[in-house]
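Bit of a strange request maybe. I'm writing a small parser for C-alpha cell strings and I need a real example to test against, not something I typed by hand. Could someone generate the C-alpha cells for this chain?
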Amino acid sequence: MDDVQSTLKWRGGVKSSVLLVCASLLFSFGLPSQAQETTDEELEELIVTGSRVIRNDMDSSGPLVQIDSEEIELQGTVRVEDMLRNLPQVWSKQNTGQSNGATGTASVELRNLGSVRTLVLMNGRRMPAGSPIGGGSPVDINQIPGNLIDRVEILTGGASATYGSDAVAGVINFIMKDWYEGIDFDLQQSAYSHNNSDGSMQDIVTASGFELPDDNVTDGQMTQASLLMGGNIDDGRGNITVYATYRDIKAVRQASRDYSACALNNNADACWGSSTIPDGRFTNFAGPPINFDYKVEGTQFVPRAGTLFNYGPLNYFQRPDERYAFGAFGKYSVSDLSEVYIELMFMDDRSVSQIAPSGAFFVTSSLSCANPFLSDQQYSLLTQDRLSPEQQTELQDFLDGLPSDAAREGYLDGAFCQNREDDFINMYIGRRNIEGGPRRQDLRHTNFRVVAGMQGDINDIWRYDTYVQRSVVSMVNTYQNDLGTTKIRRALDAVSDANGNTVCRSVLDGTDTNCVPWNIFESGAVDQNMIDYLVLPLFARGTTEQEVFMAYVAANLIEYDWVLPSSSRGVDVVIGFESRSEGMTFDPDEGYRNGEGAGQGGATNPVAGEYDVSELFLESVIPIAEGRDLMEELDLEAGYRFSDYSTGHTTHTWGLRLSYSPNYDLRFRGSIQRAVRAANVRELFTPQGFNLFDMDADPCGGTTPARSLADCQRSGVTASQYGNIQHSPAGQYNFLQGGNPDVSPEESDTLTAGVVWTPPNLSNLSLAVDVYNVRIEQGISILTPEFILNECLDGDDNQCRLVKRSSARGDLWIGSEVDSSGHIVALNDNLAVEEITGLDAIIDYSFTIDSVGTFDIHNVFGMLTQFDTQELASAPVEDCLGVWGGVCGYPVPNLRNNLRVTVATVYEPLVVSAMWRFTGEMDHQGGSPVTLDAVHYLDVSGIYTIDERTSVRAGMNNLLDVDPPIAGNGAGPSISGNGNVFPGSYDALGRYWFVALQVNM
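Reply from user aminoacidic:
Good idea to test on real output. This should exercise your parser:
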C-alpha cells in the first residue's frame, strides 16, 4: 500500500513540475503582435462535448442531449441523478433508494449498459472513481453541486478517441458556472407525500398478519441551501467564483408504503420473507423420516409451519444523507494570449443504510444435547422417541440399506440426541436478533479535487491547453449491529459448570472467557448482556486516487493552405498527450476479512492496486465542401487515440463522423466509433470471496425439483439429496467472486445515423432523429451464477466445474465457508457480448399566443428495438428487449419519453411548466406472471420573479401520486431493486413537492 501511495505522489510531483516548465516555455514565446488584436465582431468560441475542436455554434455531429439550468430549476430535484434519470437515455441504479448493497454513492449510466461504461466529465475533464467500496467504483454524482450546473451535455455512443477509456455508452459532461459575477443564494425545501391506497397490496399484507402504514404519509424531507459568489478582478482580466452547498435528506422506511410493507414472493401475490425468524428456526435440513423444523413458543419446540420473517419494513426506502460541499473556480489572463485557471472542490457526504436485524443465519451444523437451555420437551423432540411407528419403520428400512454397522451407528449419532451428557445432534439454527435492532451501515465519503492549467494562443494559428488534475476520495465505513459467526457458535455451545451455572464451553476451556450463553430456546429470555457479546462492529476504510496530466495543441490550418478546393474553410487539427494514473485501497478490518459478520454473506477482502496509462491522440475536422448546390456544408471528423496501459495492454480507438447539410434547413449526420473500457482496479485486483446473488429457486431444490435427477446430478446432487434440498427462503444464494489481473480491455463499435431538420416556414421548430447500434465484445463481466447453473444442468461440463454444491446437503446457500458451503464460482473475465439498437428523437418548438405568453415545447423520445446479451460469445442470445429479471436483470423498457411544455406568461414575472414522463411496459424474462406496467407521470412547476433580485419556485413531481410497478421478490438488491420496486427507474415514494427561494445580489 505504501508503494502505491508513494508512486502516485511521485507522479503528482513530476506532473506539477511539467506544468510549471510548460508555463515557463509558453511565457517565453515570441508572440506575433497581430495575434493580440481582437475585434468586437468575433464570434464566441465553444467546445462541444465529443470533440476538442473549437466551434462557433453548438451544432454536434453526434447525438447530443442538453439540460440547462432552467430545466434543473423546474424539475426541483435535490439529487442530480434524479434529474438525469428522467431522460430516456439515462438510468440510475446506485442511488439513495438503495439500502441493502448500498455504497453511499450515486451513479448514472447511458443506455443501461453499466455505469462503468459511461464517462462522466466536469468542464470536459474526467471525474474520479467514486468509492473504494463495492461495484466497479463509478463516478459518484454526489460530487456535483447541482445548483452550480450551467448545463449538462450528454453524448450517446462511443467517444474513446476523444476522452479515452470508459466512454463506451457515451459521455455525460457537467458544464459549471465558473465565471460568475454577484451573489446568489438558493434555499429549497422538499418532501414526499403519498396516499396508501393500493387495495390489492393491502389485502396481501393484512392476510399475512402484518401492519399497514397510515393512509396518508409525508416524509423524506430534504433541505438544500447553496451560496454562489463571484467577481471579476484586475479590470476583467480574471474572475474568481466560489460556492458552498449543504444538503440534508431524511430517511424513509419501507414500512411507510403499502406496496413495500412486506417482502413479496416471486409472483408478487403473497408476502414472503426469511426463515431466520425471531422465534428461531431449528432444523436439520434432512429428508423424511428424521427431518424436523421447529420454532420456539415459551419453552417448547412447535412446528415452524412455514413461518417467515418480514424483513422489509425496517429497511430504508430512502437513505438519510447529509452533504457539505464547497469550492472555487478561478481564471486569470496573464497576458492577452495566455490564461491560467484553477478548480478546487471539496465534498463531505455521509449516508446511512439500514436493513433488517442480523442473526444466526444457519452458521452452526450441530447442537450439544447437553445444552442446559433445552427444556425436557425440546430435548424429547430431538430423540428417536419422537418418531411415529410408521416413521420408525421407514427409518429402519433406510438403515438396512446402509453398507455397515459403523455407517448405521454414525448416521444415528448425528440424527438424534441419545443422551444429555456428551452427545451432539445435526442442527442448523436460523434465529433473528430482533432484540438488537436493525443493521446499519454508516458510509462517509470525503472528496478533494484540484485542477490547475493554462490555455491560450501560441501564435495566430496555434492554441494550446494543458493541465494537471488530482482527485482523492476517502471512505470510512462503519457497520453496526451485525453478529459475529464465531461468537454465535460459542454462545450456542452452552454447558453447565461445576456449580450448575450455564456457561459457554469456551469459558471452561479458556478459548473465550468473555462468552455469554445465548438463550434462544425460551421466548423473551434474550437479554442485553447476550446481545452485547454477540454484536460484532465492523469497520473499513479506503481511498481512490486519480492523477491526470493532459496537454494538446490545436489549429485551423487555413494559413498553411490546408483547404480543399471545394471549401473555403481550413482543416482543424488537435494533437495531444494524456497520462493518467488510477489507484485504490480498501482496507476492511479482521472481522470483515475473515467473514465473521453473520449478515455479510462471506468475507470482505481488501483491495490494493494501481495502474497508469499514457496516451497520444489526434482529431481533425476536414471541411469537404460548402456553398454549393445541394451541398451547403459537408464535413468529415476523424479521431484516433493510442493508449499504453501498465497492465501490459495497448488499445487503438478511433472515430469517424460525417455531417452533410444540403441546405440551411436540413443536416444529415452519421458516425462510426471504436471505443474501449479498460478494467478498473477492483476488476483487476480484488481477492476472491463470497457474495450473494438472487435466484427465484434452485432448479434442483424442493420436494419436487424442476429438473430431473440426471440433470441435477451433473451439478453435484446425489440421489439421496434429490428431492430433499432446501430452497433459500430469501431467494439468495452463494457465489465466489474476485478479480483477474489478466483481463483485457473490452471493445465496442457504435454506428449512428441521424437527421436534424429546421423547417424554413417554422423557424421555431427543430427536429433531431438518430438511430444507433452499439455492440460490445469481450465485455468484462462474470457469468451470472444462475446462468452457470442452468448451463450445467443443460449438459455443459465446463460450467459444471463451477458449481460447488454442499457435499452434505446439496444446497447452494447455507454457510459462508468456501471449503464446505455450497456456491457457484463466477470470476471476472472477458466474456460478455451485448448489442443494442434504437432510436432517439428530440423535438423543440416555440410559439407565442399574445393573450397567454410564449410556449416552449421540448420532447425527448427513446425507443429500443434490440437489446441482446450473451453471457458468452458461444452462448445463446438472450433477448432482453422490454423484459426484466433472469439473465437480463434490471428493467429495460423499449419506450421512454418525456415532454415538457413551458409558458413564459404575459404576466412577465411568472413562468409555468408541466412535464409528462412515460416508461413502457415490461415482462419478466423467466416466465413469472409479474409484469411491470407502463407508467405515466405528470409534473408541474412554476417560477415567479418577485423583483430583479428575488424569485420563488415551486412544483410537484408525480402530481397524481402514481404507484411504482410492483416487481416482488425479483427486485432484489443484486439488480438494484428495493422494497419490491426499482427506485432507479420509477418514482418509488409517490408525490414529490418542492418550494424554493432564490436571491441574487
